[in-house]
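Key idea: predict the complex, not the pieces.
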Amino acid sequence: MTQPKRALITGVTGQDGSYMAQQLLEKGYEVHGLVRRSSSFNRGRIDHLHHDDHLPGKNLFLHYGDVTDAARIHQLISELRPHEVYNLAAQSHVRVSFDEPLYTAEATGISTLNVLEAIRSVDKSIRFYQASTSEMFGASPPPQNEETPFYPRSPYGAAKVYSYWITRNYREAYDMFAVNGQLFNHESPRRGETFVTRKITMAVARIKKGLQSELWMGNLDSIRDWGYAPEYTDGMWRMLQASEPDDFVLATGTAYTIKDFLSLAFEHAGLNWEEYVKFDPKFLRPTEVDELIGDAGKAKAKLGWEAKVHPPELARIMVDADIARLDGAPEGQF
Ligand code: NAP
Ligand code: GDP
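Result:
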């Protein structure tokens, strides 16, 4: 019997990490996830993977650690000898990165070097995926693709630019299979609750149930290219199965403003967003990214990857899930 492939996922408790773990288990991988110790439970997105009868949940192993701890990362990689590493851990919130720029530089930037260095010294044949982002393009006008110059507009974007380049440098300098997925915003019912789409869909569900009457928000005019997270984690996996290491944009190519998303989400619940949304300057950023619209042509041509779910369907999926949660649906369902 052939041994299953082994993967290590940093950020396994996050939105993408949880979908990645699920999809790799479904493919028969042995999955190892890095988890941070927290005083309250933070495994809500992956807990169901241990109990789902359709998944070989016994192949999921969790290890305490932190990507800023180089010694721990080295030790884990040399102990586990994974075939693939998905580096998804980060301080991932743009607004928060203005409050915690140094921590963001460490957790979102330098930490990538910790993982790459561990791989370089343990086994250079380990394949490495870096969670790069459209935030690196920042103020560069759309459509953005792999050739678009970087112009980050936040400490988060700047930290991710470092991670992007150190990943490319290790690929070129040490002949490692190290790739960047330059992913545009992707959302789901598992999206963090302070990102704009999820904040909106949770509010719609709560307003619908009479639990909330106002929604306080910042800039409603920026344009984003929102896709569906499980499709994007499939794209990450495809990047690590390719014959050559390369960098890829994943995006839907669609352009919607925050107002458009408000309208899609509220209308799906039979509500008019303008009756509920209020402005609070605390949600503005010192520098904003006005327009992100991706061109994923290269991923389509070379990986056969294409986004199927676009914002109107995405808004419906997310609103329905948040309403179902309030009706008591178990978390593992989403
Ligand atoms: P997320 O839900 O915020 O998850 C982030 C994960 O990183 C969580 O598991 C978190 O653990 C973990 N983490 C944070 N700091 C850590 C540290 N110092 N050590 C170890 N683990 C740490 O993010 P996501 O939406 O899944 O995104 C995954 C990755 O893709 C991130 O790197 C993000 O920046 C990047 N990205 C996301 C998007 C998007 O639209 N979602 C687009 C482009 C790129 P806790 O549960 O303990 O907090
Ligand atoms: P980002 O693209 O990674 O910054 O993802 P977010 O979901 O955090 O923000 C997307 C856009 O929504 C940005 O242009 C924000 O300025 C805008 N936005 C407007 N109001 C809010 C809000 O209340 N919360 C968040 N997170 N973003 C908001």
